[in-house]
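Still learning. Any example?
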Amino acid sequence: MTRRDRVMHALNFEPLDRPPLDLGAMPSTNISCFAYPGLIQALGLKPRRPRVYDQSQMLALPETDVLDALNCDVVTVQMELTNGYEQPEIWHPYAFNGRLDAEVLDPSQFVTEADGTISQPHAGSKMPPGAHVFETDHAGQLFSLTGDIPRPGLDEFRTTLKQRALTPEQIAKAVDMLKRTRDASERAIMFWGIGAEIGIANFGGLAMFPMLCLTEPEHVAQLHEIAITHAMEQVEKLLPLAADCVDVFMACPDDWGTQNAPIAAPQIYNDLFKPYYQRFNGLIHQISPQTKTFFHSCGAIYDMLDDIAESGFDVLNPVQWVAGGHSYQEWKDRTRGKMALWGGGVNTQSTLPLGTVEDVEREVHEVVSCLAKDSGYVFCAIHNILAEIAPEKVVAMYKTAGAVRV
């Protein structure tokens, strides 16, 4: 069984030897670039600069020798980069004002201010001294309880999407990376490059857009029609050219849950989101029947699991079972045979940062033994491994998960 076989067997709910493992297939299953050098040392690998590919969350792009050492089964392909093979020409040294000897795609995006803060003017974000991620006020989203709710114009939105349409050069580059990655790696490929373009945090932000969904659902439906039409057009341009190289399609990164409950009512999801997701997933499955579509949503979304599965998504991440009062056993029972779970392997809010290595091993064994039963599961932590996490815990969680037999 190849690593790709293992992943696809899991996503098809077929028997397999052990649960597949993931580190870094997408920017919620990864590790901080500040924690990465310690992991490299703990694994006994050659020191190297971490390659910072997510410059907001400050995430490292795991190289193949790291994936080998942790026994991981997935690589990522995005529009500009992959870890399926080496791309030294796209990476450039940048030291983050002496805090981290790293490599980035474009050092000119960063400015060091007098107090040591590093800013990204194009994104309006900053990383103060001592911080490990870039931040913006209210996460870059408007928050106001007075005045009118932001109401994006339809014509303006159409123009914006038209400007963002994939060029022939971009498509050719992505297809080439997908094909080269398939040739270079036996791992499953997750492709991140064309999303559904709709989400509960879009069009004004997480604080405001859910209110627009309540007050002007007809306008939201028009926005979503424009968005999904554009996204489907991009899929039709690219996916037929490399369908056999896309095992998992990152279809929608969203966040529907708080720590305790969904952000918006299920009826909002069913009326204004589900029909468009069904069309998007349906097109991907029509073009590439073997490809699995991937939905990311943090938070307490247990009560939405049936609706998400009915939207046509094959895979759900990050499986934040610690939010909302439902156990990982309940999450597994609710999705068994209907939608694969990707993540949830250890509590990244308490056990991983605050527990001992033994605590991490114990929780990983218990959770993975449950979620991997009857297949339909890929292991990683509930969310990214943060800067403060000791490398011994990271090694322990992957070693423990890989030892589970299903």
